[in-house]
Write a structure and sequence with these properties.
globular, Chitinase A, domain 3, 4 helices, 2 domains, 38% strand, 5-stranded antiparallel sheet, 16% helix, alpha+beta
């Protein structure tokens, strides 16, 4: 190689290196934009009917998430599940690994209609709020009953529950081996002893309350209020008792009738939710109360805050 050729090569090398680096950077930027555009607000793609959309969401009762009365009933956001926000009576806490993006096929009817339609014309990164009124969310036949503080309720001195119902009601036994005699406080508040029948997979519970005694009943979430049971009589192996609702959280009121945050109980495997009370004295002690026996989330207004993560036409 001549001296002139060596000199020319040395002069070209830096230029070639710079050009190569510029080419690489350009390639990275272009490739990056094609991926990035699917996940950031900068993409102009909006949701239309038929799209598949991945979302994160928080579903609440009474108000949007973060509101004073908001109670979370469902979410796929770990920080919400693991945080200090109020959770509904029926809230099921999933493990962190089970908090995955929720896939919505818009217009398919796979999710609530208003949940799906609220995503239309929104793009990745948008946060959408939608209130779904009673009748447009989860629905079922309404089963409501009202009682006064003097209404008499009854349960047998001995009650038999299936193994699955027993551990559903008494979660402290969920991770324990059922065997022998097990002493505990019942959902009614009074003492109980249970014997597991392994052959029939049932639990036989014997109750031992005291006539005249008042007991704190086991509510699903004591954040929403308290319920006490007062034993009025025990005859022919039947326990008679009255119930009093107190320390409830009022959402709205029309005179003495107050709509409250639902208080859940599960007596004998039959869950129900106290939804309103009459409190003429405004002292936080109900003179009467109304319950619903359908699922907690049924026939109530629902509030959703939804974040769009990706859109796939």
């Amino acid at each position: 190689m001549s001296n002139d050729e060596v000199k020319l090569k040395k002069e070209r090398d830096p230029i070639m290196k710079v050009c190569f680096i510029v080419f690489l950077l350009t390639s990275v930027v272009v490739a990056g934009s094609s991926i990035y555009s699917n996940y950031v607000v900068g993409d102009d793609t909006v949701v239309i009917n038929g799209d598949t959309v991945n979302v994160r969401y928080v579903g609440t009762y009474y108000d949007f998430y973060g509101g004073e009365n908001a109670v979370v009933f469902d979410t796929n956001i770990w920080n919400v599940t693991n945080g200090n926000s109020s959770k509904s009576n029926s809230f099921v806490a999933k493990t962190q690994d089970n908090h995955k993006e929720f896939t919505v096929n818009v217009g398919s009817g796979g999710a609530l209609e208003m949940f799906e339609s609220s995503l239309i014309n929104h793009k990745v990164g948008d946060k959408v709020k939608v209130m779904i009124p009673v009748g447009s969310g989860y629905t079922s036949a309404e089963i409501h009953k009202s009682f006064t503080t003097s209404s008499v309720h009854a349960v047998g001195m001995i009650e038999t529950l299936s193994e699955s119902k027993f551990v559903e009601i008494y979660e402290e036994f969920k991770d324990r081996t059922l065997s022998g005699m097990m002493a505990f406080d019942s959902v009614y508040g009074w003492p109980a002893v249970a014997v597991y029948d392994a052959g029939n997979k049932v639990v036989n519970i014997s109750y031992s309350p005291t006539v005249g005694g008042t007991y704190d009943m086991q509510v699903m979430n004591d954040e929403f209020g308290k319920v006490t049971a007062t034993v009025t009589a025990i005859n022919n192996n039947i326990i008679s008792y009255t119930m009093t609702v107190k320390d409830f959280h009022v959402l709205s009121a029309e005179g003495p009738i107050k709509q409250i945050q639902m208080i859940g109980l599960n007596l004998g495997g039959n869950p129900f939710f106290i939804i309103s009370v009459v409190d003429s004295n405004n002292d936080g002690v109900a003179e009467s109360f109304t319950i619903k026996q359908e699922e907690e989330r049924n026939n109530v207004a629902l509030y959703f805050e939804i974040e769009i993560i990706s859109i796939n036409p």
